[in-house]
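Predict the 3D structure for this chain.
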Amino acid sequence: MVRKNASTTRKNSTQYGDQKLETKVVSPKNNADVNVVFDDFMNAFEEFKQTNDTRLDALEKHSVSDPLTEQKLGKINAHLDRQQSKIDALSQKAKRPILGGEIQSGFEDGEAKTAFNAYMRQGMSQIETIEGKAYSLVSGNDGGYFVPEQIESNILDNMKLASPIRDIAGIQQVTSAIYKKPFAINEFASGWVGDADARPQTNGADLEELVYPTMELYAMPAASASLLEDSAVNLEEWIAAEIEAAFIDQETEAFVNGDGVNKPKGFLDVPTVAESSWSWGNLGFIETGADGAFAASDASDCLLDLIYSLKARYRMNGNWVMNRKTQAEIRKLKDADGNYMWRPAEVVNGKASLLNYSIAEVEQMPDMAADSMSLAFGDFGRGYLIVDRRGISILRDPYSAKPYLLFYTTKRVGGGVHDFNAIKLLKFAA
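Done. Predicted structure below.
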């Protein structure tokens, strides 16, 4: 049931094609109320279903739909996307951990924070006036400065909340430049024996060494002198927000499409084969039955085939990965019983689902096109590994962009497919 909140909203009629959809508009003083936006989203989805039912009825009866109905459906779909973006942004903001708490880096309470703020505001010369052990945060001969441990931890936590791939993938923190891991690409032999029976020697598993080099990712947020001089400005929050915004899109693009050259290797860059011919080192795919689209009839069959191409232990933690345009098309699909397969989140901080599996919306996934791999399904916690090398470094540069100050910020991250059994792709091809 959709909640009503008349005290914080007003009614507004939004024109969709030749009809009007009644929506709720958040008043300016309550524009951070995620519950109001969520209610509007749910109301719009009910209107979407009614409009799509009209479109499907027309297709069934006349083999063609009304252009005005198609136009209205497209506008409602766009409205749903906008509201979902607002819900995501407000939810992430509400879940962000508070920066500037107790620092867990061996410093007395407030000492690392004092050193960090001194460097950010006035440069390395000010650190010399702070107790000598603050130099343990200086990052080598370049004069940079390591972000205190607790601030780095909070930044990574925030990135996990905001990054759709980090939210579902496996993550490993390391202190070296390369992470190596042996992986059994088949199972160890086993069997049953009696108490007094001889134990025959079992065959060992085939092991493959997986290697994940960490690559340098950088950003250069800029600040004015007045911002740094203003003691009311929380520099920890400012630099964290700037770093997150700069890094998340770059990381996500690499985790999806990266070629492994000076960046992580994305799961769409590995070799792919038809699921019937799958072998280790490849990701298997299922075809939709139509070029650049779902099949005209029994469109949902390929989705079910994709789910059950995974072994049961991987399906348990399955997630869909697709971009917003693909999701907009999937909203229109029904199962054989006439039920919508796509379902909105049931609570504000929840996720939309498809056939009871959560959807990770990743804009870096390709749009639907002929032969595109626009949808993935699998246990990404098992299937894709992100490797974070500890340490975020900041180099204060007051010279290159006068009168502004640049903060050359770097972190090292790697990534790649971890278990080729755990991820399957949907290919939009006949």
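Residues 34-62 form the longest helix (29 residues).
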